[in-house]
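User: For this week's homework, look closely at the record that follows, marking any run of repeated tokens, and judge whether sequence predicts the tokens.
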Amino acid sequence: MKQKPQHTQNSDDDMTREDLKEALAYLRAENAVLKKLEELGLEKKRRQIKKSGNSTNSKKYPRFKILATGDKATKKCVLLPS
């Protein structure tokens, strides 16, 4: 892996065109790595949520099964957690 370019100059105005290109290439690579790490972290969270079967909506609104009992005149519905 290429190391960050070491600059002895203090100002971007004093850098040569080649130094600026090298610094830009480094920053682009660093940005790509950070984006990939963020993407992997989000994907890991999605997999954990999917695996556990819990999402923010399912915590607020748990799933229920409807159990109907009785005849048509006295039909009752009972909500049972699934």
In short: The first strand starts at residue 64 and ends at 69. Residues 49 and 55 are 6 Å apart (CA to CA). The helical segments are 17-52, 56-60.
